[in-house]
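Need a sequence for this fold. Nothing fancy.
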Protein backbone atom coordinates (compact mmCIF):
# COMPACT_ATOMS: atom_id res chain seq x y z
CA UNK A 1 0.00 0.00 0.00
CA UNK A 2 1.09 3.57 -0.67
CA UNK A 3 0.20 6.63 1.34
CA UNK A 4 -1.80 7.89 -1.65
CA UNK A 5 -4.41 5.23 -0.89
CA UNK A 6 -4.83 6.88 2.52
CA UNK A 7 -5.39 10.23 0.81
CA UNK A 8 -8.05 8.68 -1.40
CA UNK A 9 -9.72 7.09 1.63
CA UNK A 10 -9.90 10.43 3.42
CA UNK A 11 -11.71 11.82 0.38
CA UNK A 12 -14.76 13.82 1.29
CA UNK A 13 -14.66 12.80 4.94
CA UNK A 14 -17.53 10.33 4.56
CA UNK A 15 -15.55 7.10 4.93
CA UNK A 16 -16.39 5.12 8.07
CA UNK A 17 -14.27 3.29 10.62
CA UNK A 18 -14.35 0.03 8.67
CA UNK A 19 -12.81 1.67 5.61
CA UNK A 20 -9.80 2.85 7.56
CA UNK A 21 -9.48 -0.27 9.69
CA UNK A 22 -9.21 -2.34 6.52
CA UNK A 23 -6.43 -0.24 4.99
CA UNK A 24 -3.03 -1.92 5.18
CA UNK A 25 -0.39 0.22 6.91
CA UNK A 26 2.42 1.43 4.62
CA UNK A 27 5.82 -0.05 5.41
CA UNK A 28 7.52 3.33 5.08
CA UNK A 29 6.71 7.00 4.68
CA UNK A 30 8.32 10.39 4.02
CA UNK A 31 9.47 12.39 7.03
CA UNK A 32 11.50 15.50 7.86
CA UNK A 33 14.48 14.42 9.95
CA UNK A 34 17.76 15.47 11.46
CA UNK A 35 20.52 12.86 11.31
CA UNK A 36 22.76 11.87 14.18
CA UNK A 37 25.78 11.89 11.88
CA UNK A 38 25.22 15.62 11.32
CA UNK A 39 25.07 16.58 15.00
CA UNK A 40 28.46 18.31 14.90
CA UNK A 41 28.02 20.08 11.59
CA UNK A 42 27.60 23.51 13.19
CA UNK A 43 30.41 23.21 15.74
CA UNK A 44 32.16 26.57 15.91
CA UNK A 45 29.36 28.33 14.02
CA UNK A 46 27.57 31.14 15.85
CA UNK A 47 24.00 30.20 16.66
CA UNK A 48 22.64 33.07 14.60
CA UNK A 49 24.38 31.69 11.51
CA UNK A 50 23.18 28.09 11.80
CA UNK A 51 20.96 27.24 8.83
CA UNK A 52 18.12 24.69 9.21
CA UNK A 53 18.05 24.08 5.45
CA UNK A 54 21.47 22.41 5.76
CA UNK A 55 20.50 19.99 8.53
CA UNK A 56 16.87 19.09 7.81
CA UNK A 57 16.27 16.29 5.31
CA UNK A 58 13.16 14.77 3.75
CA UNK A 59 13.63 11.01 3.50
CA UNK A 60 11.83 7.68 3.59
CA UNK A 61 11.70 6.07 7.04
CA UNK A 62 10.26 2.74 8.23
CA UNK A 63 6.84 2.81 9.88
CA UNK A 64 7.27 2.24 13.65
CA UNK A 65 5.62 -0.62 15.50
CA UNK A 66 2.36 0.38 17.18
CA UNK A 67 2.32 -0.21 20.95
CA UNK A 68 -0.33 -0.27 23.70
CA UNK A 69 -2.09 3.03 24.26
CA UNK A 70 -0.79 4.47 21.00
CA UNK A 71 -2.24 5.59 17.69
CA UNK A 72 -0.81 5.78 14.20
CA UNK A 73 -2.10 8.90 12.45
CA UNK A 74 -2.13 9.73 8.76
CA UNK A 75 -0.85 13.30 8.85
CA UNK A 76 -2.65 15.68 6.53
CA UNK A 77 -0.80 18.78 7.73
CA UNK A 78 1.64 20.00 10.36
CA UNK A 79 3.32 23.27 11.33
CA UNK A 80 6.66 24.75 12.33
CA UNK A 81 7.38 25.44 15.99
CA UNK A 82 10.53 26.85 17.50
CA UNK A 83 11.48 23.47 18.95
CA UNK A 84 11.96 22.27 15.36
CA UNK A 85 14.31 25.21 14.82
CA UNK A 86 16.26 24.30 17.95
CA UNK A 87 16.43 20.67 16.85
CA UNK A 88 17.64 21.63 13.38
CA UNK A 89 20.53 23.77 14.63
CA UNK A 90 21.39 21.35 17.47
CA UNK A 91 20.84 23.97 20.17
CA UNK A 92 21.15 23.96 23.07
CA UNK A 93 22.30 20.40 22.31
CA UNK A 94 21.45 17.64 19.81
CA UNK A 95 18.12 15.93 20.48
CA UNK A 96 19.61 12.45 20.11
CA UNK A 97 20.49 12.54 23.81
CA UNK A 98 16.76 12.92 24.56
CA UNK A 99 15.98 9.88 22.43
CA UNK A 100 18.66 7.75 24.10
CA UNK A 101 17.45 8.64 27.59
CA UNK A 102 13.88 7.85 26.62
CA UNK A 103 14.98 4.52 25.14
CA UNK A 104 16.39 3.43 28.50
CA UNK A 105 13.00 3.74 30.22
CA UNK A 106 11.27 0.70 28.68
CA UNK A 107 11.57 -1.91 25.92
CA UNK A 108 8.82 -0.13 23.96
CA UNK A 109 10.64 3.21 24.19
CA UNK A 110 13.73 1.69 22.55
CA UNK A 111 12.03 2.25 19.19
CA UNK A 112 12.78 5.95 19.54
CA UNK A 113 16.57 5.60 19.65
CA UNK A 114 17.41 5.79 15.95
CA UNK A 115 20.16 7.49 13.89
CA UNK A 116 17.50 9.89 12.63
CA UNK A 117 14.92 11.98 14.46
CA UNK A 118 11.52 12.63 12.85
CA UNK A 119 10.62 16.14 14.04
CA UNK A 120 7.39 18.06 14.44
CA UNK A 121 5.10 18.73 17.41
CA UNK A 122 1.83 19.48 15.61
CA UNK A 123 -0.49 17.58 13.32
CA UNK A 124 -3.97 17.35 11.93
CA UNK A 125 -4.99 14.11 10.32
CA UNK A 126 -6.92 10.87 10.45
CA UNK A 127 -6.44 7.97 12.85
CA UNK A 128 -5.18 5.00 10.85
CA UNK A 129 -4.62 2.42 13.61
CA UNK A 130 -4.95 2.20 17.38
CA UNK A 131 -3.00 -0.06 19.71
CA UNK A 132 -4.27 -2.30 22.52
CA UNK A 133 -6.09 -0.45 25.28
CA UNK A 134 -7.26 2.45 23.11
CA UNK A 135 -11.03 2.84 23.31
CA UNK A 136 -11.74 6.56 22.90
CA UNK A 137 -10.47 6.77 19.31
CA UNK A 138 -11.16 4.72 16.20
CA UNK A 139 -9.66 4.49 12.70
CA UNK A 140 -11.18 7.25 10.58
CA UNK A 141 -11.46 9.82 13.38
CA UNK A 142 -10.31 13.27 12.29
CA UNK A 143 -7.99 14.63 14.94
CA UNK A 144 -5.39 17.12 16.00
CA UNK A 145 -2.65 16.24 18.47
CA UNK A 146 -1.12 18.10 21.37
CA UNK A 147 2.54 17.44 22.07
CA UNK A 148 2.55 16.25 25.69
CA UNK A 149 3.91 12.71 26.06
CA UNK A 150 3.68 11.27 29.59
CA UNK A 151 3.95 7.84 31.20
CA UNK A 152 2.08 8.65 34.48
CA UNK A 153 3.65 5.80 36.43
CA UNK A 154 4.77 8.23 39.14
CA UNK A 155 2.38 9.95 41.58
CA UNK A 156 4.01 13.29 40.76
CA UNK A 157 2.06 13.75 37.53
CA UNK A 158 -1.42 12.93 38.74
CA UNK A 159 -2.28 16.43 39.96
CA UNK A 160 -0.72 18.11 36.92
CA UNK A 161 0.59 15.85 34.16
CA UNK A 162 3.23 18.43 33.26
CA UNK A 163 4.93 17.48 36.55
CA UNK A 164 5.29 13.82 35.56
CA UNK A 165 9.01 12.87 35.77
CA UNK A 166 8.69 11.22 32.36
CA UNK A 167 7.02 14.22 30.71
CA UNK A 168 8.37 14.83 27.22
CA UNK A 169 7.49 16.91 24.18
CA UNK A 170 6.51 14.69 21.27
CA UNK A 171 8.53 15.32 18.12
CA UNK A 172 11.26 17.07 20.12
CA UNK A 173 12.13 14.73 23.00
CA UNK A 174 10.53 11.72 21.30
CA UNK A 175 10.74 10.38 17.77
CA UNK A 176 8.08 9.90 15.05
CA UNK A 177 6.83 13.50 15.06
CA UNK A 178 4.31 15.33 12.91
CA UNK A 179 6.45 16.72 10.05
CA UNK A 180 5.79 13.53 8.16
CA UNK A 181 3.15 11.55 6.29
CA UNK A 182 2.54 9.29 9.32
CA UNK A 183 3.03 9.96 13.03
CA UNK A 184 3.06 7.86 16.18
CA UNK A 185 1.37 9.40 19.22
CA UNK A 186 -0.03 8.33 22.56
CA UNK A 187 -3.81 8.19 22.29
CA UNK A 188 -4.19 10.76 25.07
CA UNK A 189 -2.53 13.29 22.80
CA UNK A 190 -5.50 13.25 20.45
CA UNK A 191 -8.28 15.83 20.31
CA UNK A 192 -11.14 16.36 17.84
CA UNK A 193 -10.23 18.41 14.78
CA UNK A 194 -12.34 21.59 14.61
CA UNK A 195 -14.72 20.85 11.76
CA UNK A 196 -14.82 24.37 10.30
CA UNK A 197 -11.06 24.51 9.73
CA UNK A 198 -8.90 23.18 6.92
CA UNK A 199 -6.20 20.62 7.63
CA UNK A 200 -3.46 23.25 7.59
CA UNK A 201 -5.40 25.68 9.80
CA UNK A 202 -6.16 23.02 12.39
CA UNK A 203 -2.53 21.87 12.41
CA UNK A 204 -1.21 25.23 13.57
CA UNK A 205 -3.23 25.30 16.80
CA UNK A 206 -2.05 22.46 19.03
CA UNK A 207 1.27 23.52 20.51
CA UNK A 208 1.05 27.31 20.62
CA UNK A 209 -2.63 27.66 21.51
CA UNK A 210 -2.25 25.18 24.38
CA UNK A 211 1.01 26.77 25.55
CA UNK A 212 -0.52 30.25 25.57
CA UNK A 213 -3.61 28.97 27.41
CA UNK A 214 -1.63 27.47 30.28
CA UNK A 215 0.84 30.33 30.42
CA UNK A 216 -1.73 33.10 30.49
CA UNK A 217 -5.14 31.75 31.54
CA UNK A 218 -4.60 28.63 33.66
CA UNK A 219 -4.10 28.70 37.42
CA UNK A 220 -0.87 26.85 36.63
CA UNK A 221 0.31 29.98 34.81
CA UNK A 222 -0.57 33.63 35.31
CA UNK A 223 -4.27 33.08 36.11
CA UNK A 224 -5.37 36.07 34.04
CA UNK A 225 -8.61 37.77 35.13
CA UNK A 226 -10.94 40.35 33.65
CA UNK A 227 -9.48 43.84 33.62
CA UNK A 228 -5.83 42.75 33.73
CA UNK A 229 -3.31 44.66 31.66
CA UNK A 230 -1.15 42.10 29.85
CA UNK A 231 2.11 42.98 28.12
CA UNK A 232 2.60 40.50 25.26
CA UNK A 233 5.96 40.22 23.55
CA UNK A 234 5.87 39.15 19.90
CA UNK A 235 2.13 39.64 19.88
CA UNK A 236 1.68 38.76 16.19
CA UNK A 237 3.94 35.70 16.32
CA UNK A 238 3.17 32.03 16.73
CA UNK A 239 2.75 32.16 20.51
CA UNK A 240 1.89 35.81 21.08
CA UNK A 241 -0.95 35.80 18.54
CA UNK A 242 -2.84 33.26 20.64
CA UNK A 243 -2.03 35.10 23.87
CA UNK A 244 -3.48 38.25 22.32
CA UNK A 245 -6.71 36.47 21.41
CA UNK A 246 -6.99 34.86 24.86
CA UNK A 247 -6.43 38.20 26.58
CA UNK A 248 -9.13 39.87 24.50
CA UNK A 249 -11.55 36.97 25.03
CA UNK A 250 -10.96 37.01 28.79
CA UNK A 251 -11.69 40.67 29.30
CA UNK A 252 -8.07 41.68 29.71
CA UNK A 253 -6.30 44.55 27.98
CA UNK A 254 -3.32 43.44 25.89
CA UNK A 255 -0.38 45.74 25.25
CA UNK A 256 1.08 44.21 22.10
CA UNK A 257 4.80 44.50 21.40
CA UNK A 258 5.73 43.87 17.75
CA UNK A 259 8.68 44.50 15.44
CA UNK A 260 7.15 46.11 12.34
CA UNK A 261 4.20 48.20 11.16
CA UNK A 262 2.85 45.14 9.32
CA UNK A 263 2.79 43.14 12.54
CA UNK A 264 1.16 46.05 14.34
CA UNK A 265 -1.64 45.98 11.77
CA UNK A 266 -2.13 42.25 12.37
CA UNK A 267 -2.70 42.99 16.07
CA UNK A 268 -5.24 45.66 15.21
CA UNK A 269 -7.08 43.15 13.05
CA UNK A 270 -7.25 40.85 16.08
CA UNK A 271 -8.91 43.67 18.02
CA UNK A 272 -5.95 45.00 20.03
CA UNK A 273 -5.67 48.76 20.45
CA UNK A 274 -2.51 49.29 22.55
CA UNK A 275 0.53 48.53 20.41
CA UNK A 276 4.26 49.20 20.70
CA UNK A 277 6.27 48.89 17.49
CA UNK A 278 9.88 48.27 18.49
CA UNK A 279 11.13 49.14 15.02
CA UNK A 280 9.85 52.69 15.47
CA UNK A 281 10.83 53.11 19.12
CA UNK A 282 14.27 51.45 18.72
CA UNK A 283 14.46 50.13 22.27
CA UNK A 284 17.95 48.89 23.12
CA UNK A 285 17.78 47.11 26.43
CA UNK A 286 21.44 46.02 26.26
CA UNK A 287 24.20 48.60 26.02
CA UNK A 288 26.87 45.89 25.79
CA UNK A 289 27.32 42.13 25.91
CA UNK A 290 26.95 42.08 29.70
CA UNK A 291 25.26 45.39 30.54
CA UNK A 292 21.58 46.32 30.46
CA UNK A 293 20.47 49.92 30.05
CA UNK A 294 17.93 50.76 32.74
CA UNK A 295 17.25 54.12 31.10
CA UNK A 296 15.71 52.12 28.26
CA UNK A 297 13.67 50.11 30.77
CA UNK A 298 12.29 53.39 32.13
CA UNK A 299 11.55 54.71 28.65
CA UNK A 300 9.73 51.48 27.83
CA UNK A 301 7.73 51.59 31.07
CA UNK A 302 6.77 55.20 30.43
CA UNK A 303 5.50 54.26 26.97
CA UNK A 304 3.35 51.49 28.45
CA UNK A 305 1.82 53.88 31.01
CA UNK A 306 1.09 56.42 28.30
CA UNK A 307 -0.93 53.77 26.45
CA UNK A 308 -2.73 52.40 29.52
CA UNK A 309 -3.58 55.65 31.26
CA UNK A 310 -0.90 55.25 33.91
CA UNK A 311 -1.11 51.51 34.66
CA UNK A 312 1.77 49.06 34.67
CA UNK A 313 1.18 45.49 33.41
CA UNK A 314 -0.44 43.04 35.81
CA UNK A 315 1.04 40.23 33.70
CA UNK A 316 4.02 40.11 31.36
CA UNK A 317 3.77 37.30 28.81
CA UNK A 318 7.45 36.45 28.32
CA UNK A 319 9.03 34.21 25.71
CA UNK A 320 11.91 36.06 23.98
CA UNK A 321 14.09 35.47 27.07
CA UNK A 322 17.51 37.01 27.41
CA UNK A 323 16.91 40.06 25.23
CA UNK A 324 13.78 41.25 27.03
CA UNK A 325 13.63 39.60 30.45
CA UNK A 326 15.27 42.42 32.42
CA UNK A 327 12.80 44.89 30.95
CA UNK A 328 9.90 42.53 31.69
CA UNK A 329 10.79 42.31 35.39
CA UNK A 330 11.20 46.08 35.57
CA UNK A 331 7.88 47.08 33.95
CA UNK A 332 5.58 44.61 35.71
CA UNK A 333 3.43 46.33 38.33
CA UNK A 334 4.03 45.91 42.05
CA UNK A 335 2.74 42.45 42.91
CA UNK A 336 2.60 41.58 39.20
CA UNK A 337 3.53 38.36 37.43
CA UNK A 338 6.13 37.62 34.79
CA UNK A 339 5.19 34.28 33.22
CA UNK A 340 7.91 32.82 31.04
CA UNK A 341 8.63 30.05 28.57
CA UNK A 342 10.75 29.36 25.48
CA UNK A 343 13.57 31.96 25.62
CA UNK A 344 14.04 32.20 21.86
CA UNK A 345 16.68 34.95 22.18
CA UNK A 346 18.69 33.10 24.82
CA UNK A 347 18.26 31.00 27.95
CA UNK A 348 20.49 32.97 30.31
CA UNK A 349 18.23 35.63 31.83
CA UNK A 350 19.63 38.65 33.64
CA UNK A 351 17.51 40.99 35.76
CA UNK A 352 17.88 43.26 38.77
CA UNK A 353 16.40 41.29 41.64
CA UNK A 354 15.61 44.48 43.61
CA UNK A 355 12.76 45.18 41.22
CA UNK A 356 11.41 41.69 41.87
CA UNK A 357 11.82 41.19 45.59
CA UNK A 358 11.18 44.72 46.84
CA UNK A 359 8.05 45.03 44.68
CA UNK A 360 6.68 41.58 45.51
CA UNK A 361 6.61 40.44 41.89
CA UNK A 362 6.51 36.79 40.84
CA UNK A 363 8.26 34.86 38.08
CA UNK A 364 6.27 31.82 36.97
CA UNK A 365 7.77 29.19 34.71
CA UNK A 366 5.34 27.66 32.23
CA UNK A 367 5.89 24.75 29.87
CA UNK A 368 3.36 23.57 27.27
CA UNK A 369 0.08 22.36 28.90
CA UNK A 370 -1.50 19.34 30.51
CA UNK A 371 -4.15 17.36 28.64
CA UNK A 372 -7.04 19.22 30.27
CA UNK A 373 -5.56 22.63 29.40
CA UNK A 374 -4.83 21.53 25.84
CA UNK A 375 -8.39 20.19 25.50
CA UNK A 376 -9.88 23.47 26.76
CA UNK A 377 -7.72 25.47 24.34
CA UNK A 378 -8.82 23.22 21.48
CA UNK A 379 -12.45 23.59 22.53
CA UNK A 380 -12.15 27.37 22.22
CA UNK A 381 -10.87 26.89 18.67
CA UNK A 382 -13.70 24.47 17.85
CA UNK A 383 -16.23 27.02 19.11
CA UNK A 384 -14.73 29.77 16.96
CA UNK A 385 -13.61 31.79 20.00
CA UNK A 386 -9.93 31.43 19.09
CA UNK A 387 -8.83 31.39 15.47
CA UNK A 388 -5.79 29.98 13.70
CA UNK A 389 -3.05 32.45 12.94
CA UNK A 390 -1.82 30.72 9.79
CA UNK A 391 -0.03 33.07 7.41
CA UNK A 392 1.67 30.79 4.88
CA UNK A 393 1.75 27.11 3.89
CA UNK A 394 4.67 25.06 2.56
CA UNK A 395 4.79 21.59 1.00
CA UNK A 396 6.56 18.95 3.08
CA UNK A 397 9.71 19.16 0.97
CA UNK A 398 9.99 22.86 1.80
CA UNK A 399 9.72 22.40 5.57
CA UNK A 400 13.46 23.24 5.94
CA UNK A 401 12.84 26.64 4.34
CA UNK A 402 9.86 27.18 6.63
CA UNK A 403 12.08 26.44 9.63
CA UNK A 404 14.64 28.96 8.36
CA UNK A 405 11.92 31.60 7.97
CA UNK A 406 10.86 31.05 11.58
CA UNK A 407 14.52 31.14 12.64
CA UNK A 408 14.90 34.54 10.95
CA UNK A 409 11.56 35.86 12.24
CA UNK A 410 10.59 36.38 8.59
CA UNK A 411 7.00 35.39 9.23
CA UNK A 412 3.79 36.33 10.98
CA UNK A 413 1.68 34.00 13.07
CA UNK A 414 2.19 30.35 12.17
CA UNK A 415 3.69 28.59 9.16
CA UNK A 416 1.86 25.47 8.05
CA UNK A 417 3.24 22.41 6.27
CA UNK A 418 1.17 20.11 4.04
CA UNK A 419 1.93 16.41 4.47
CA UNK A 420 -0.65 14.07 2.87
CA UNK A 421 -3.13 16.83 2.06
CA UNK A 422 -2.82 17.32 -1.73
CA UNK A 423 -3.46 21.05 -1.48
CA UNK A 424 -4.68 23.89 0.70
CA UNK A 425 -8.30 24.45 1.63
CA UNK A 426 -9.29 20.81 2.23
CA UNK A 427 -10.80 19.09 5.27
CA UNK A 428 -13.62 21.52 6.08
CA UNK A 429 -16.69 19.69 7.42
CA UNK A 430 -18.77 22.63 8.72
CA UNK A 431 -19.04 25.25 6.00
CA UNK A 432 -21.75 27.22 7.78
CA UNK A 433 -19.62 27.84 10.87
CA UNK A 434 -16.61 28.60 8.68
CA UNK A 435 -18.54 31.26 6.79
CA UNK A 436 -19.32 33.04 10.08
CA UNK A 437 -15.65 33.22 11.06
CA UNK A 438 -13.93 33.41 7.68
CA UNK A 439 -12.61 36.94 8.08
CA UNK A 440 -10.99 36.09 11.43
CA UNK A 441 -9.60 32.81 10.10
CA UNK A 442 -7.91 34.63 7.21
CA UNK A 443 -6.63 37.73 9.00
CA UNK A 444 -3.01 36.50 8.98
CA UNK A 445 -3.21 35.50 5.29
CA UNK A 446 -2.08 38.78 3.77
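Here you go.
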Amino acid sequence: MTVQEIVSAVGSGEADTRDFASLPVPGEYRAVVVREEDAGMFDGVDGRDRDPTKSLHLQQVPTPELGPGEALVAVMASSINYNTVWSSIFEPLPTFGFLKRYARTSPLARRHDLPYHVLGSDLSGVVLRTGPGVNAWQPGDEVVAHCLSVELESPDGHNDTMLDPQQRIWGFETNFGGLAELALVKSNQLMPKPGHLTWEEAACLGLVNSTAYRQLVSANGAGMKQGDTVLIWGASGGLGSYATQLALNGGARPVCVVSSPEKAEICRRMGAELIIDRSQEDYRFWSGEHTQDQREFKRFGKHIRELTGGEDPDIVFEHPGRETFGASVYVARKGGTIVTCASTSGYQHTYDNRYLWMNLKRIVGSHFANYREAWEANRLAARGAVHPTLSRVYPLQDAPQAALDVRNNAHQGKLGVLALAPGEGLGVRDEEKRSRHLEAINRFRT
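For context: Residues 32 and 58 are 4 Å apart (CA to CA).
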